[in-house]
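Journal club side-thread
Mid-discussion, someone asked how the predicted structure for our own chain would compare to the paper's figures. Pasting it here so we can look after the session.
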Amino acid sequence: MNDPKTILVIGTYDTKDPELNYVCDNIRKLGGNVISMDVSVLGDPSEPTDISKHDVAAAAGKTVQDAIDSGDENHAMQIMADGASKLTAKLYADGKIHGMLALGGTMGTDLALDCARVLPIGVPKYVVSTIAFSALIPPERLSADIQMILWAGGLYGLNDICMATLSQAAGAVYGAAQAVRAPDPDRPVIGMVSFGSSALHYMVHLRQPLIDRGFSLAVFHGTGMGGMAMESLAEQGYFACVLELAVAEIGNLMVGSIVNAGADRMTAAGRHATPIIAAPGFGDMIDFATWQPVPERFRDRPYHAHNRLLASASLTGEERGQLAHEVANRLKQSKGPVKFVLPTQGIHAWDTEGMPAHDPESLAIMVDAYKKEMSDPIDLTVMDCHINDKAFSEKVLEIIDGWIADGTLKTGG
């Protein structure tokens, strides 16, 4: 039998005392231990919690009275969020918790997201929220492996529906804490962003050669949430190198699509001096939800419905030039080496001759823009090939081999 695990349970115990205690009781019934954290401001719990609201405020360098005196509930909750996230990080660093579960409406969810983000990938982090899966939550607020459960019928007081949700949440977080195999790579990890192998082939060409060289490869789907997860891990310094070979999330952000990974996408690796190899994969398309009307500005453009969730339309040559400028601005902030590989014959399967996104004139404008924008300190390589040709992947491996030879990258295994 697994050793008992300890779950941190976070919430406003002044207004959600019965619900939070119900969760704690369920975790204990499963054989687990609980550390309770009260993040309320005005009221008090029915019984003292393990970490009081005064402890939380003090961790933020404030008092509960400071939060009250602010006269603004948003500012008050940000004080408590600061303290709660710092205490969460310390509890994990000290080996006292194995997972967290938080309950909340919009206020509690706001705070819970900060707490989840300080825990590394592999630590179970569950948020029971009245706004789970809502568009109110921007992707950059989400930690890489956060789990959210809709708090149906749970705004005020226990009831049968609410208890069904809360009991599942208690079982989910405790079961995850017992079952999780936390990442502990025995070799350096390379992070790569891509799309499906039918559209971009380089992940198929690169995976085994990178493994043969002593790396582990983690591939992230560049549809917003995948890029967010990669960015979150890059911020933790998790990667030995990142392969930013598809830039659609930056283009989506640029034109206002919801399919983006937040305003800080493609910046974390650079801040941590992580070596970067970049390319313009899928940098000519705008993504949007298939189930919504096609945005008016894209209705006269080549259109591809990938499935019932995701559709794409083409960017103009001018927009592709703007994207090149945006990508270059992000890469030029890097404190580590940056290589940019520019294939001049195309950047995904749908832009080849006979396919709906084939547009040689706009492709030429895009290529010229990248040639202009990818200047010092970025090292640009221009290749007369398509991104799906093996020659492109072989160039990426050549750069990797050079970095191994000069000590920029260390291999494992």
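Post-session note: DSSP finds 13 helices and 14 strands in the chain.
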